[in-house]
Amino acid sequence: MLEIDGLIAQVGHFRLGEVSLAVAPGSCHAVVGPSGSGKSTLLGAILGTLPVLRGYIRLAGEDLTALPIERRQIGYVPQQLGLFPHLSVRANLLYSARARRVPEPVYGPLLARLLEITGIGGLLDRRIQTLSGGERQRVALVRALVAKPRLVLLDEPFSALNESLRRELWWLVKELQQEQGLTVMLVTHDLTEAYSLADQITVLIDGRQEQSGDKAAIYRRPASLAVARFLGLKNLFPARAQTPGLLDCPAFGVQLRIKDSKVEGEELWVGIRAEHVAVRRPNDPLRPDETRLSGYFERILDLGDSAMLHLRTPSGALLEIRCRHRLLRSYAIQEGKMGIVGLPADELFVIRS
Amino acid sequence: MSLKTLGFGVRASIVAALAVLAIYAGLILSLLWFLDPEILRRTLWSARSLFSIRLSLYAATLVTLLALALAIPAAYALARYRFWGKEATEIVLEFPLIISPAALGATILIFFNNPVGEWIQENIVYFVFNVAGIVLAQLITVLGLAVRMLKAAFESVPPELETVAQTLGAGRTYAFLTVTLPLAKNGLLAALILIWAKALGEFGATLMVAGSMAMRTETLPIAIFMRLSSADIEATVALILILVVIGLTALLIARRLLAGSARA
Does the pLDDT of residue B160 top 90, yes or no? Predict the structure, then answer.
């Protein structure tokens, strides 16, 4: 298990602090955040390329902060993959065995299995420059794993690939993780990648740990405005809690029904994900757990399998809605036409100002 | 693409490039006017010339090895680490380039006239008017260039590769020897040849520190100076041609090696 407790690290004038998180054995933890949020600083502290000012990093109970990089037993796949261009694929894969003087009978079975899973057995005598992007990713992954690391750090390793190749490699990482029981920390700014691979997520913004926890919780209940905005939420509006279960929302000029248990008598922000806003027909029966809003569809973005709609309410607020593409026709949704939407009480969440 | 279809600017730049070739090739070819094959043969095989060739090759090779031994770790530190005095060190590297070799040689000579310099000469090595002085003068002339070239070579290797090597269990030295050094090989070879060629042709600082004593501190450039001073033009031409042939051979070998390692 990786345990980070009260970690503070600094690079030049940038300070990352305090970060506390735990990665359970065999699980995948994603660290997400925009550029300059401190992801690389956290990674450097775990790897050992940056000094830790305060706090602890423990791996399987051992304090890593005093260990040199080569003794931390961390498998590292950086964004540029770090393959050695002057060595063949075979020499790249055997680098750790040669550096640590591990005999063939020790690493051989694992290497054979990894080659089988990743399908790169036929590339061993090739030079790195002759490999495709996907082949390079596989070589980098196998090279990191054949060293039997206690933790695998993936630093945006799939960012340079096209969509279909990335998805293919996500499946591969999942398979490797489950079969080999790998403990993985994934650093990425790609939320889809984080949601696809990770069990737990930590959000870093401006050098601060904004939120950590189960990925579903972070998806549904961002803890701060900064997290909500980083997660791409556009539907965020100032509100005030008046009575339990109801929120005054001046942006819509109505009271919103809400189930979020955190609501107290204070200034808040209320939010809802675009995909949780329900498109309704005028004759659909009213639901007690939903607030209805009307407006006109200002813009429609066709995303292929889905559509993104902008609904302008009479009060001037703009609501973003994501719905299935077929709803456009069945609900006769068109730009400039009036429409009705419902905000389910259990999908609305609040963020303290 | 034919030259006629190119714009004026492109044509002018190509003419300028050919003019550079013409200047140097013209200078070398003009030597042939005074070339007497018999004198060339006699000069080449004379004991004095052979001494100069041997001394020049010996000093340039030793200087190159010493310069690399000091420049490789220094350049690596400058390329990879931040430390107190780094900026000052980088500025000092330009020192041999901005002052003339003669001034640099005079500075070394003056140093050996202060108490520290005198102590070194009396207790460690006697440099002034000695072969050790040739090596020292050439070393100080080329060291800045060596560090600058090697620093650029190390900077061309992403530090991340060393980090990855370390995560794979390599210590710093193993990572340097198996990753950084092979990847910096081209820059290292280029630096090695240029340092050697520059040391071979060094004159000003060598003359100041080691003087011009026949069969003692007479490197090839010093020999050329001495022959020209005694108005022996044919022998001067012969020695210049020897220097040119040695230098060009070294550069050709370097180009072959670099082309070979680029293909590998």
Answer: yes
